Amino acid sequence: MALYENEITLKGFLGKDAEIIATKTQKTFTVLSLATKSGYKDKQTQQWVNRTEWHRIVAFGQPADHARNLKKGDYVQVKGEQCSNEYEKEFGDAKKKVKVTLRNSEVHASFVKKLEQPASSRAENLDAQPVREGDAA
């Protein structure tokens, strides 16, 4: 049994085409913007309350090769490691500058697979709103 484990599996739809980025040493990696949805039925209003979560997926090596031709709207499965990093950013003008520590989160993919489109992406929640293009991360 592992003492620590950091593995995440996501299934969802891409919000935009795969983005291929080159490093300074001309090595490439692929970035995906993946939307997952969850929701619940409000007991008071009997309406569905939905939430779309956007995930930044970064793939290197063979997973990047599998991801490079993916397009907006593709249904995909990703497995990988949840990673975060902190950085500081200054806000305000010269007189009132404030330093704020921010945190980025992304998934470093070890597996990327395009899945067959489900018969209905809204089958499990008929009241769900579709993911809009402007929502993409």
From TrEMBL:
The keyword DNA-binding applies. Residues 118-137 are annotated as: Disordered. InterPro entries: NA-bd_OB-fold, Primosome_PriB/ssb, ssDNA-bd. Signal peptide: none annotated. Pfam families: SSB. GO terms for cellular component: nucleoid. PANTHER family: SINGLE-STRANDED DNA-BINDING PROTEIN (PTHR10302), SINGLE-STRANDED DNA-BINDING PROTEIN, MITOCHONDRIAL (PTHR10302:SF0). This is Single-stranded DNA-binding protein.
